[in-house]
Specification:
573 residues, Rossmann fold, Nucleotidyltransferase, domain 5, six-stranded mixed β-sheet
């Protein structure tokens, strides 16, 4: 919950704007300001104070405990010009809240956290437990000093300005220095050395079986004992897994709660199908599967680190097994829109900053290079290498990387999503990020040509036989559907557009409106309205989108408009 506090009429108006926009996230605190701040500080995860920063500093200073537990505090000035992240920039989420409030109110977010200011991810914001000298290693990254990444586990991290290759070579040679700054990614029990940060990825799954009524302490003690003996950190446990017959077992639920993880369950049939080294007749008779602990840990694959073991209580009422699951790489297929920066979606920007590896056409990479975080590895190539880029992106994701594969417009429309998803299997996570595609960008410039049924057809026969393209054009012509032509004409393909227009002319009048837009939303954008008979194909190239209206499309006040197909009627009085 976000507490909203104000002292003046202008501040109250700001509070109400935020409260109206986020009704489920906010609570307005009334009464004397000091009392309101103290109550909100105790009751809320975050505060937005429409007050002077000095006043808020004096009010919250006595309330501060530590950055891990203090709420995030954002101050907005009386004029609504700035949203200042004051307290809890990372731990309390104030930096991101300042950006959200700024976007909502039209205010400038003010973030002074060093890592955020220069685009370097905070080591305590990666979503993993972190140990060691975070401040010193972060400062080293900011100062450009060598920081080694010692990744014992491949995991999809955001870009970090580290020397991973040098670190790997040093590790192989056993040449790590105690004076070297380093980031270590491991699920093992290790004590961070001087100048080192240890990140604990959620790589471990603990399978658990229990008798009815097994005490929480027995289950939890067994888990801790198994991890300790294997040299594994409890902070890397992602979940406890068991059979669905034990979904409500208090001992298992209580152990998971104290570990701070979730419980996942599987049917007896699913677990019985898992090949395990230590099957048993007892669970088969009790719940219908020869293994619970090992099978539940292994059902989604992984390396069995701790085979089934029983608790030492007499009689033993719990069993467990530990598996290390391989990291699932992450592939974000990102549509960049038609070119203008303000048509690049916030979600696309977030994915670009999250990715440690960027794959794309060189000219598209140039469009967004300034948005990438330091340390992002860029794999760019020229025209005609779409399938190679798709394979590269998927291969990098399979190595456990966080990858962004970029394309213009919407990546799923005549772009990179299709070849990438054809290459990808279910061993990686795939996220699609929609973008404003060329037909939409051109349509907005022309007016409303897509107001009724419409279709997009690419005239490029490089990958699709012309016979197939012609059949689709003819079907659209006969169905009286508005048509947007992508890839209409190039130096080597100069006859396809005239042929397509001839087919449409068999079913539409010569005066049918046609919109021609080149480089939609870019600085050299151009557009014009013509007719089916008046369009000169020689004026069209690969940077152009051609939209041909249907029999109802009209030019109205210089705009291309296709009616929606019905009329709004006034309700009877």
């Amino acid at each position: 919950m976000i507490g909203l506090i104000s002292a003046t009429a202008a501040g109250s108006a700001g509070c109400q704007r935020v409260a109206s926009a986020w009704p489920g996230r906010t609570r307005v605190y009334e009464g004397p300001v000091g009392d309101a701040v103290r109550r909100a500080f105790a009751e809320c995860e975050q505060l937005v104070c429409f007050l002077a920063t000095g006043a808020v500093v004096r009010l919250v200073a006595p309330l501060l405990i530590d950055k891990a537990s203090d709420p995030g505090v954002v101050c907005v000035d009386e004029g609504g010009r700035f949203a200042v992240s004051l307290v809890g920039g990372h731990g309390g989420g104030a930096n991101e809240l300042a950006r959200e409030v700024g976007e909502l109110l039209g205010a400038e977010p003010v973030v002074t956290t060093a890592t955020d200011s220069v685009g370097v991810p905070g080591l305590d914001t990666l979503g993993f437990p972190v140990e060691g000298d975070v401040a010193a290693v972060s400062r080293a990254m900011l100062d450009g000093e060598p920081v080694a990444l010692k990744a014992e586990l491949a995991w999809p991290l955001p870009p970090l300005p580290v020397a991973a290759a040098a670190a790997a070579a040093a590790a192989a040679a056993g040449q790590y220095s105690s004076r070297q700054y380093s980031i270590r990614v491991t699920d093992k029990v290790v004590e961070p050395s001087e100048r080192e940060v240890v990140l604990r990825p959620p790589s471990l799954v603990v399978g658990v079986g229990s008798s009815k009524g097994a005490p929480v302490d027995e289950v939890l003690g067994l888990v801790h004992e198994a991890l300790r003996d294997a040299g594994l950190s409890a902070k890397s446990v992602a979940e406890l897994a068991t059979v669905d017959a034990k979904a409500g077992e208090p001992g298992i639920l209580g152990a998971a709660e104290r570990l701070g993880v979730t419980v996942v369950t599987y049917s007896a049939e699913e677990l019985a199908a898992v090949d395990v080294p230590n099957p048993s007749d007892a669970p088969l008779a009790a719940v219908g599967t020869p293994s619970v602990a090992e099978a539940a840990a292994l059902v989604r694959g992984g390396e069995l680190l701790v085979p089934k073991r029983k608790s030492t209580a007499q009689p033993a009422m719990a069993t467990c097994a530990v598996v290390r699951r391989a990291a699932r790489g992450r592939l974000a297929v990102v549509g960049l829109g038609p070119g203008a920066r303000d048509l690049l979606t916030p979600r696309a920007k977030d994915e670009l900053r999250r990715a440690s590896v960027l794959v794309g056409l060189d000219q598209y990479v140039d469009q967004i290079r300034d948005l990438l975080r330091p340390g992002t590895r860029i794999l760019e190539s020229g025209l005609g290498a779409e399938e190679e880029r798709a394979r590269t992106a998927v291969a990098e994701a399979r190595l456990g990387q966080a990858v962004a594969l970029i394309g213009s417009g919407d990546a799923g429309v005549y772009a990179m999503a299709s070849p990438a998803l054809a290459e990808a299997s279910d061993d990686i996570d795939v996220v699609g990020v929609p973008g404003v595609t060329a037909a939409l960008a051109a349509g907005a410039i022309l007016g409303a040509p897509l107001g009724h049924d419409h279709v997009s057809i690419s005239l490029s026969d490089l990958h699709t036989p012309w016979e197939v393209i012609e059949r689709r054009v003819r079907a659209a012509a006969e169905a009286d559907i508005v048509v947007t032509f992508y890839n209409p004409r190039s130096r080597g393909r100069d006859w396809q557009l005239p042929k397509a227009l001839t087919i449409l002319a068999e079913h539409r009048k010569p005066t049918t409106p046609v919109g021609v837009v080149r480089n939609a939303s870019r600085p050299d954008e151009s557009s014009r309205l013509t007719t089916l008979a008046g369009l000169d194909p020689a004026t069209v190239d690969m940077m152009t989108v051609v939209t041909v209206g249907n029999t109802a499309t009209r030019e109205i006040a210089g705009r291309m408009v296709t009616p929606r197909g019905y009329r709004w009627q006034e309700e009877p009085k």
